[in-house]
């Protein structure tokens, strides 16, 4: 039962975070931030979000800015989800580099072919 609630809350947080980042990056032309995966702790107190950032060269800088403004993001999530959650979780943001990893593997496979 607990896992179902965790999954539901994770999907809800992913949707809200994606909306917030979309609104925030609209002013930054040429930058796109998408939330690829959200994990939440069993007690719903810590949320780990994985972000995919385009262009990937700006990834570290953007995640650094988001981490610095974590309290603002948490406040915004709380404002939007105050009816669904009693406690708004702490957020931790990481870069999801799985697409870069896939690209690198594809490149290696292309170069290896005789």
Automatic annotation (TrEMBL):
Subunit record text: Monomer. Binds 30S ribosomal subunits, but not 50S ribosomal subunits or 70S ribosomes.
Any one Pfam family match given in the protein's UniProt record, by short name: RBFA
Protein name: Ribosome-binding factor A
Principal location listed in the UniProt entry: cytoplasm
Gene (name only): rbfA
Gene Ontology terms: biological process: maturation of SSU-rRNA
Subcellular location as annotated: Cytoplasm
Database matches in PANTHER family: RIBOSOME-BINDING FACTOR A, CHLOROPLASTIC-RELATED
InterPro entries (alphabetical): KH_dom-like_a/b, RbfA, RbfA_dom_sf
GO MF annotation list: ribosomal small subunit binding
Family, as annotated: Belongs to the RbfA family.
